[in-house]
Design a protein that fits this description.
Strand content: 15-25%
Number of strands: 18
Helix content: 25-40%
CATH superfamily of the largest domain: Metal-dependent hydrolases
Number of helices: 13
Bound molecules: guanine, fe (iii) ion
Shape: globular
Structural class: alpha/beta
Distance between the termini: 21 Å
CATH class of the largest domain: Alpha Beta
Strand order of the largest sheet: 3-2-1-4
Largest sheet: 4 strands, mixed
Radius of gyration: 22 Å
Length: about 450
Amino acid sequence: MGKYIIGNIVHAVQVNKLEILTNHLIYVNGNIIERCSPFSEAEFKPQSHEEVIYLTQTQFLFPGFVDTHIHAPQYPNTGIFGESTLLDWLQKYTFPTEGRFKDISNAKDVYSKLIKRQLNNGTTTSSYYGTIHVPATIELAKLCLEQNMRGRIGRVCMEKFCPEFLNDGSIESDIQFIEEMERLDPSGAMVKPIITPRFAPSCEFSTLKGLGELAEKKKLSIQTHVSENLNEIKWVKELFKTKSYCDVYDEAGLLKKDTILAHAIHLTDDELNLIKERDCGVSHCPDSNAALASGIAPVKKYLRHKLKVGLGTDVSAGCTVSVLKNARLALLMSRLLTQRESESLEIDELNKDKSSSLTVDEALSMATLGGAQVMSMDKEIGNFEIGKKLDAQIVDIASDNSEIDIFDMSLPSNEIDRVRYYLNKWVYIGDDRNTVCVFVDGKKVVSKI
Ligand code: GUN
Ligand code: FE
């Protein structure tokens, strides 16, 4: 069935540029965007069976968020990390919780609540880590299909530096998982498996290599963690006797166009060049990086080097499923980095091109188009280009209980400036209450109005 959405529309057209289209019309046929053009009341003649949604003055249509890195089984642990940092956090909090997903009833309960919470926050695509368990991770895929979350779903492969109950580094388990996934969604349009070695220390080199070969044979993407914590980096270099963390993955054949590297905080320039050369994507996880005191990733530098960068909530090292809050943290932490660097670099108004500070356009673009690029899904989703699928949210800056107060005295009179004013308020003050409607694959899946 055809659907019109009429009003103000905002989307990223480049990784550093949002386009604001005032008084526009989007026409969606089934799940595909067929038209995006200025709206003319006089020429508008919808047919009786077509749905028409008029946005109000305080609303705008925005692409659904893409969460490029989230651990579904860790959802019960959000906010619970105490004083830990990465390596002791894994042992103390994370592994015991992940072990509980041997029981499929935990998977059903946790995963259904997680997906509901994500959709409510405007996330329409996620790259998930499950656990080592094939049945629980298949359950995650089934719930994504049922609840309408687009996603990549990874069975986590790990066999070292973990309790015995989380040890399954067998490629046979991965093959079994992939085959079950192919039966669930043969086209892979909504859910698709993704090869997921937890991180280098979790696997023997031969296993990493085997996973690289499997990804190649099955034409699947890969996700893993890299350069998150200084002790972790030192440990990896000792374990594998390599020059750098990225070299381990490169030698195992894991650095490819469809590879999502989470964190990538402390990269050397050689690693940055290697990631660029291999065309891998980076998942920037600012909430997690702050919570576990891992560091501040120099994202602006990555964007200048034209790396593909998206945002990841990294639940539960990150405390929130909200990609919007991660966009805000990306902005705030980038400003702290500029402040730190300005002591040595002398950054001032005349030297802005050296600044590490992100713009609102860059942060919201990473949350959508950048994320789609990182997941190699930018031909399908990420913005409202004709031919893409409609994954979108209606944002209302003045929704019920909104945290945002709008004052007429400071509201710009020009329409484009007004929408930009709303965008700034949303990214710095907004939350799930401002996301009043969510569409996935053309279907309305959340409606609060
Ligand atoms: N490195 C290896 N496993 C994990 C994980 O579960 N979360 C984070 N943030 N880093 C990791
Ligand atoms: Fe992670």
